[in-house]
Amino acid sequence: MARPRTIVLGFDGLSMIFLNYAMDKGYMPYLSNNKNKFIFRDMYCIPPLTPPSWTSIMTGVNPGKHGIFHFFKYKWTSDGLKTEPVTALDLEHPRIHEALALAGSNIKSIIINPIPSYPVLPVKNSVIMSIEFFTPKPSSHPKDVLNKYFSGSDLETLISTSKMGCKSMISLSAKKIELYISFAERALREDHDLIWLNTHIPDEVFHICRRNIHKPKLFAKIFKSMDALIKTLNGDSEVFLIVSDHGFRYFSKFINVNRILFLHGYLSPVEDSRCTVGAKSHLLKIRRQISKEIYKIIKKNAFLSLIARNFFIVFNKFISNTRMPMVLNVSHNINLVSSNALPIYDMFILLKTKNVAERETLVNLLSRYGITIYKPEDIFSGPFISRCPDLILVYNDSSYPGIGNVYSREIEKRYIAHHSKFGVFIARVNEIIDQGRMDYFLPRVVPNTLPTPFVLKLLNSSISHVTDNLILLKRLFKNVKLANVVGKWKIYKRVLMYRKV
Length: 501
Hints:
Layout: E1 6-12, H1 16-24, H2 29-33, E2 39-44, H3 50-59, H4 63-66, E3 72-77, E4 80-85, H5 96-102, E5 109-112, E6 126-130, E7 139-141, H6 146-149, H7 152-159, H8 166-187, E8 194-202, H9 203-208, H10 220-234, E9 239-243, E10 247-251, E11 253-256, H11 257-263, E12 274-275, H12 279-298, H13 302-321, E13 328-329, E14 341-344, E15 348-351, H14 356-367, E16 372-374, H15 376-379, E17 391-394, E18 399-402, E19 411-412, E20 416-420, E21 422-428, H16 435-441, E22 445-447, H17 451-458, E23 463-464, H18 470-477, E24 482-483, H19 486-498
Parallel strand pairs: 1-8, 1-9, 2-22, 5-6, 5-8, 11-18, 23-24
Antiparallel strand pairs: 2-21, 3-4, 6-7, 9-21, 10-20, 11-19, 12-13, 14-15, 15-17, 16-17
């Protein structure tokens, strides 16, 4: 089979819910007009978190085999919890461009924003650039290649985030996509066999605009920019994939994990978590917040303005006469020394003691509140499961288990926008293989470990012998060639660390 030009476009936080809406409303006309040429699938991403999910996508193995579970590595000590950022040197399995190099392939690739993003690990036949995704500074291999594709001001734009709110973030992200379109136009004129481009869009927009996530029309500008990037890359490739590391959606019920753990003795707050100081300063703060929100509503209505003015006269007198302490939910700070369990980033729980019975008790406790909860060995496999936090919380269709104030209610009916467990897998392969057969054998929901071995097979390259999806790959392609790149990767990492890359 001839080597096809293959392009993978990664949109962080994209879900089929938003994609279908954008196509239906005409915000993505190119993809909509050509959707009969693509296979569309949801992609199951657990945990729905950037570092582990993108690493699974780019390696073809689950976190138990590649070793990345979170943004940080955690360790309990006598002084509390110690954290250390995850880096590319923590990878226990090579990503796609590294696997190609270790297998001795002469396939030429250009990789933008691999995850983990830092440090950039040099391999032959690959141009690698880390700009987004938590890298301390833009870096590349070869070192001067960034200047070939991006100016200094371009890089400043790509690494910046807006502090001016939702609409300015949308405009900024649209500018970022324009820069990636310019990059793509140049890269497509070169002789790369594989182009893989990841971007933090639309996730960075959704997080800034989370209060407006239920108004997808607001994001029309972003969808149109994404559609233009898809058009640019799809037009000059034989194989084209769009993938994402998780989705984004609204949840209607908040389950306060901190409160549950506190009630049952697993979690201890610091002494000032429940504020019992004089109420005056806090009530003044509340008044300012109320004023700002109400002002937007009443500023054009004389009757409401009169009511509000009299309300604040009474409220001011109440504040002035207040002398007694008042309990207010002002923080959820946790005492890391005395706590026995700790939620981290709404998706995991760390236990201080690795007691199997205690872990099982906690699973049963949280399950009674309607939380779907797994132990690492339930959903992961591989030699590095021990790096995973002790419990994994999975978001249901309506419930969001998150980190809240220990003095709030256990369950609240309120809307929260956050990551969801389904990203996207979209593929056009009809120029290479029978797309109808592919559509038939692909399950409705594909695992996030599929994209890399899928691409490697289409590039006529060998696939890691520890890949997670061998049965599915054999259904899709019949013949699959395997190679052991993990052993070579261990040796290569030792060399890099010796050189202090």
